[in-house]
Amino acid sequence: MKTGIFYGSTTGTTAEIARQIAKEMGVTENDIHDVANTSPVKLAEYDLLILGSSTWGHGEVQDDWYDFLDGAEALELKGKTIAIFGDGDETMSDTFCAAMSVLRRRMESTGASFTGEFPASAYTFESSPAMLPDGNMVGLALDNVNHANLTPERISQWVKTLE
User: Is 145 helix (H, G, I), strand (E, B) or coil?
Assistant: First the structure.
């Protein structure tokens, strides 16, 4: 299964997380893509698409994602699988990692399936659009502001669910 990692990063945190995930999965540098300078058609080259964004403002994706998603939504990705990761600050208690829900919602029209839900029980926040009714997040939620020390173990646990 060929894996591609696609991320948007303003401060470098999401880029670093993307590289940590790649290292854990054995994904090469050539298969890690910054959406700021990648065409959405690149998604079609992979079986497993790992998409990552930090959360900004009132639950928005990182700025570079908007144009990329506009193009990606028009693609036919049936037979592909998408896993999502996000980084946020759990003290933003009503938008924690909300960008993950935006990525999922915008990519649903492509026909791809989704995987990689992650338990929300490890976090303290009031609500999040990225939380599913079963208590899981739509993907790997990370908080490098308050819990950077937990990121490597959470990545390792999450990656095992994708294999």
Answer: coil
- Rounded to two decimals, the pTM is 0.94
Domain span including residue 153: 3-162
Classify residue 61 by its DSSP letter. P
Distance, in Å, from the CA atom of 63 to the CA atom of 125, rounded to the nearest integer, reads 24
Place of tokens 């790992």: 50
Give the span between the Cα atoms of 156 and 154, in whole angstroms: 5
> What is the rounded distance in angstroms from the CA atom of residue 107 to the CA atom of residue 49?
11
Query: The domain that contains 38 carries what CATH number?
Result: 3.40.50.360
As for how many domains the chain has, the answer is 1
Query: What is the per-residue pLDDT for 93?
Result: 72
What tens digit of pLDDT does each residue of 16-51 get? 999 999 999 999 999 999 999 999 999 999 999 999
